[in-house]
Amino acid sequence: MRDFSNHATERATERDVEITDVETCVIEGNFEWNLVRVHTDADVVGIGECYRGGGVTDVIEYMKRFLIGENPVDVERLFRRMVQETSGHGGTTGKVVTAATGVEIACWDVLGKVTGLPVYQLLGGKYRDRIRLYCDCHAGEAYEVEDGYTVGHDAEAYTPEAYAAEAERVADMGFGALKFDLDQPADNEPDPYNGRLDNAAIERKREIVEAVRDAVGPEIDLAFDCHWDYSLDSAKRLCRALEPYDLMWLEDVIPPENMDAQREITRNSPVPIATGENRFRVHEFKDLLYEFGVDIVTPDPTTCGGLAETKAIANRAEENYVVCSPHNVCSPVGTMACVHLGAAMANLGTLEYHALEVDWWADLLSRAEPIIEDGHITVPEEPGLGIELDEDVAREHLLDPGTMFG
Question: Locate the Mandelate racemase/muconate lactonizing enzyme C-terminal domain: which residues (predicted)?
Answer without folding.
Answer: 160-272
